[in-house]
């Protein structure tokens, strides 16, 4: 009898992770060139910033309703319906894009990705033991890393067919692979116990009562300061990711004058380094050192970005060193941060609280696109300075979180202030 894939995992987490490469491989191919694709089709830096901001504004709206829809439809139906809308349809629209308005329409459609985002986390976490959740997110990170190894295929397509035609091919491939993933995952997962319970509860309540409950989640979050601190770190992590993914490729190609065909090598190098980090370093990190590992990761990430602006060289060795530091930093921080956030949320409140967190993330990251576009026009180095500052502030917040957690552990009777 064949051994199951991911034998330590059970049920939904195994089904979700098995099909995840069919999303992450095509995503890693086109995401490297998405900004340059818009640039080639005549969009300015400011246009690109507005497109990013429009998408994030729609994501704010979809985050507001994502918890309700995830509870109302159930995790499985919510993730299937809105993945097909926000990714399958969006990739076809990107493939056919001709001007600003095509990208604006695609940004609106893709903005509904927050619904399947919330549903995915519920589906993969709720029936998984808390002790296994770091393992789940580490595997998810590994799959993302392996996906990054395929980024050079995107570079080959760009080299062979040119930026515009190469990107159109990548988006069509993404439509085929992603749609296969959505259907395959639907067939190999089941609704979670919390999902069944919340779907029944939501049917008995009206939308108004549900929205009142979600409003209460904001107040609960504000009272629980430790939760607020770890959520603050998560918000900053997403803020820098938005800025970096939007402007790093443009910075390297436009400001440092690197050949666009070479850009796809860096995600592959990053992926190899992350796999080596996972193999050689992460087994040596004890569970009780998770916060220290995150802080070290944030420090390395800040340094990697500062290098590119303090000494803006097109040297492959210099940019490669920055890429290595960023890869190690991401690998030793991201899985622990994801697990810390999910373990801080009660299963019965997961959709509500995580959708609230998503709204907060997006309220802070929605301006990132337009701020980055304005800042890039002023000086192309400023967006990377902002990324560096986000990591430094994350380090400080996590240090404060560690101290408060240690105090509460040493004094169980002490309530969060």
Please supply descriptive tags for the structure shown above.
disordered C terminus, 81% helix, 417 residues, mainly alpha
Q: Which residues form runs of ≥5 with pLDDT under 50? A: 412-417
Mean pLDDT: 84
Helix proportion = over 70%
Structural category: mainly alpha
Principal-axes shape call: globular
Radius of gyration: 21 Å
Number of helices: 21
Strand content: under 5%
Per DSSP E runs of 2 or more residues, the count of β-strands stands at 0
Oligomer: single chain
Elements, N to C (H/E): HHHHHHHHHHHHHHHHHHHHH
Amino-to-carboxy terminus distance? 55 Å
Sheet bearing the most strands, described?
none
Map the helices and strands.
Layout: H1 11-19, H2 21-31, H3 34-40, H4 45-73, H5 75-95, H6 100-110, H7 114-125, H8 133-148, H9 151-161, H10 163-188, H11 193-204, H12 207-223, H13 225-255, H14 260-263, H15 265-280, H16 290-310, H17 316-331, H18 334-343, H19 350-365, H20 368-378, H21 382-410
Helix pairs in contact: 1-7, 1-10, 2-8, 2-9, 2-10, 4-5, 4-6, 4-7, 4-11, 4-19, 4-20, 5-6, 5-7, 5-10, 7-19, 8-15, 8-18, 9-10, 13-18, 13-19, 13-20, 13-21, 15-17, 16-17, 16-21
């Amino acid at each position: 009898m064949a051994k199951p894939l991911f034998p330590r995992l059970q049920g939904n987490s195994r089904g979700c992770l098995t099909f995840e490469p069919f999303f992450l491989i095509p995503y890693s191919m086109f995401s490297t060139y998405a900004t340059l694709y818009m640039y080639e089709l005549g969009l300015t830096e400011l246009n690109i910033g507005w497109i990013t901001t429009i998408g994030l504004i729609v994501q704010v709206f979809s985050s507001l309703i994502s918890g309700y829809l995830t509870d109302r439809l159930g995790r499985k139906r919510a993730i299937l319906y809105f993945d097909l809308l926000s990714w399958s349809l969006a990739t076809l629209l990107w493939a056919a894009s001709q001007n600003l308005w095509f990208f604006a329409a695609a940004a609106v459609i893709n903005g509904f990705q927050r619904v399947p985002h919330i549903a995915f986390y519920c589906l993969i976490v709720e029936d998984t033991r808390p002790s296994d959740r770091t393992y789940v997110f580490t595997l998810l990170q590994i799959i993302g890393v392996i996906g990054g190894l395929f980024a050079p295929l995107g570079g080959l397509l760009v080299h062979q067919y040119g930026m515009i035609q190469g990107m159109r091919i990548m988006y069509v491939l993404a439509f085929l692979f992603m749609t296969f993933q959505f259907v395959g995952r639907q067939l190999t997962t089941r609704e979670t116990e919390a999902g069944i319970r919340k779907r029944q509860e939501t049917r008995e309540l009206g939308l108004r009562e549900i929205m009142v409950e979600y409003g209460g989640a904001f107040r609960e979050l504000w009272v629980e300061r430790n939760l607020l601190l770890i959520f603050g770190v998560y918000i900053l992590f997403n803020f820098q990711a938005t800025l970096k993914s939007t402007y790093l490729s443009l910075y390297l190609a436009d400001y440092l004058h690197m050949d666009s065909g070479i850009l796809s090598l860096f995600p592959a190098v990053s992926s190899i380094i992350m796999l080596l980090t996972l193999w050689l370093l992460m087994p040596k990190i004890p569970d009780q050192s998770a916060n220290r590992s995150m802080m070290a990761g944030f420090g390395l990430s800040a340094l990697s970005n500062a290098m590119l602006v303090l000494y803006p060289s097109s040297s492959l060795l210099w940019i490669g060193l920055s890429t290595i530091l960023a890869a190690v930093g991401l690998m030793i921080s991201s899985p622990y941060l994801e697990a810390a956030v999910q373990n801080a949320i009660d299963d019965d409140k997961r959709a509500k609280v995580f959708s609230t967190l998503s709204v907060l993330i997006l309220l802070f990251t929605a301006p990132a696109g337009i701020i980055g576009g304005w800042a890039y026009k002023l000086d192309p180095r400023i967006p990377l300075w902002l990324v560096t500052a986000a990591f430094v502030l994350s380090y400080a917040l996590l240090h404060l979180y560690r101290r408060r957690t240690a105090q509460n552990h040493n004094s169980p009777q002490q309530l969060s202030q």
